[in-house]
Amino acid sequence: MARMPIHRTPLTILCVLLSAASAEAELLINELAPDPAGADTGREFVEIINASSISEDMTGVMLQFANGSEGAVWRTRWEAEPGLLLAPGTRFLLADRNWQGPGQAQVEVWLGLQNGPDALRLVRGDSVLDLVGWGALTDPELMEATPAPSAPGAALSRRPDGWDSQDNGADFVVADPTPGWSNFRPWALSVLTVAMDPPSLARIGDPLLLDVEVRNDGLEDWPVTTLILAAGQERGTALLDACPAGDVRRFSWQVRPGESGRVALGAVAVAPGNGDTIVLDLGAVHVGAGALFLSEIMAAPRRDEGEWIEIEAVMPGDLGGWRLRDEGGEWRDLPVRTLAAGERILLAQEPVALEEWILEARARGGFAACDGPVPAALELAGWPNLNNTAPDGRAFAERLQLADPTGLVVDHATIGGLDGKAPDGLSWERVGIEPAHPTGANWGTCTARTGATPGCPNSLSTPGTAGPTLTVEPAVLDGAAGPGAVHLRFQLIAGETGWRARLHDLWGAPVRDFGGDDLGTGPRDLVWDGRDDRGMVLPPGGYVALLLVKGGAGGTLRRERVVVVVR
Fold first, then answer.
1. Which of 243, 129, 252 lies closest to 194, judged by CA?
2. Quick one: which of 179, 184, 148 has its CA closest to 166?
3. What is the pLDDT of residues 241-278, one digit of tens each?
4. In a 3-state reduction of DSSP, which class is residue 83?
5. Suppose 228 and one of 268, 452, 485, 545 were both cysteines; which one would form an S-S bond, judging by CB atoms 3.0 to 4.6 Å apart?
6. Which has the closest alpha carbon to 295: 453, 163, 149, 423?
7. What is the per-residue DSSP string for 268-320?
8. Which domains, ranges and CATH numbers included, belong to the chain?
């Protein structure tokens, strides 16, 4: 989506606002940045405004600074040249030497401001024209009524421009720096929070729910507005309720992105007053497989090997900058290491204990499909909190998120989404890099007799043999004893063009639709996790899987049935 510019031209309606200012106010400190983002040198500024209705002669006007720790000891930072005139509503920008910020400064001087508690004032002779104090001040000589707040990385701005109630705390707000132009526009919106559920998408067409919180930063009340929403090439709309100046509103949108990779999210609003276009950046969502993915998770170990997480690389790359976190937890940096394509890495709560457990399991004949060297188990800088049961207000036990060096969540895994519990003593395994079918589950409980496959191919993704006849493997889905999923495997042969499959109970009622495709000959592998179309766990008993295979004319060439037992 092409980004449309946000206009930031100086307002021409200042005369209306300034006429409401205090009758005593003429020259005012309108905006200041005592603690800008990054180094202060070359980024500090003080903006002076003429809040009267006539031009002001600034001859003899001085800007003075006082360190709050010293009290009212004033030091002159700048004095106006004789004959300097400032027109009504005009701003005069004093910038620090070697000015690096936006806007054209009229004067560059050494400002030497501090982060607070400190103060600035404008004086001419014995008259104090304006006084602004910020931070934890208590000295009345350093402020008007109450101090303005501290503003680390931002600016202190009068709202609206030129307004002076003789109370610094009431007149100034923390805002984005706008040196040389209006502090606040009549029409403005800013994004406060964006919540995405889920945090990443496994495949194209999966639903994403956005919940967005915006604030009206303009001077005018925002009426009911239709927002134009974009997720890559997908478009939608959302209704933004009427929002008075300074208030906060929320809107939601469910979208199914139609492309893979990093998909930009945004919203466009048209300002009701002047028709300006305001673009809201809502971040991005990752769709499909990334360079790394979560492969297996042990959240509830029965033995002393501790919790662990397996990550696999799709392509060669460095782990540097990648991060991991649990739901609501802090981001933790992955160890610096280069992985080859297809290589797995184990992150362990107890690395030595996990390696010992792997050796013992192999000695007992475990991991038959994996006889290479024991993979090294690495530590994180602090272990995430992997919940085994769902806390109050949450339907799942845990959700791990994996983010790339840009901060984009590339992959996630939700544990305990059926009953709110992590599988006891069994790992949570990925079936494939991407789900094989739109209705197929891509995670399930490990079916290996060892209960886990750290550093080895997952039991759920181990290739099976698919012939023309529909088969089920294993024959029994036993959630309590181990298997958390079964594979329904079959193959389309010459002359067969497509298929559909459904699961019925013993009375013939459909309980799960597996969908189908028209991709022609080849093997198919459907993974069933014991849930119906509503996501509910089916009760123990027998179920019948029905496969319909289609030919070139669209007719059914063959029907097959197989019994699936749920224990």
1. 252
2. 148
3. 999 999 999 999 999 999 989 999 999 999 987 788 99
4. coil
5. 268
6. 453
7. EEE-TTT--EEEEEEEEEEES--SEEEEEEESS-SSTT--EEEEEESS-EE-T
8. 14-175 (2.60.40.1260), 189-286 (2.60.40.10), 289-461 (2.60.40.1260), 463-567 (2.60.40.2550)
